[in-house]
Amino acid sequence: MAKRRSVDTKENYGKAIKIFFDNYNKDLQKLLIAPFDINLEYSV
Asked: pTM for the complete prediction?
C-alpha cells in the first residue's frame, strides 16, 4: 500500500479557518448577537 500523505497540517487548518471566517463571519456575528438582543423583531 502506498503511504498516504497527511493533509491535516497546521498550515492547512489555518487556511481552512481563514476561508470559513471570510465566508461566514457576518452570519456568525448575527447568530451570536441575536440571543442577547431584546429588541430583535424576528427569530433567527
From this structure: 0.49
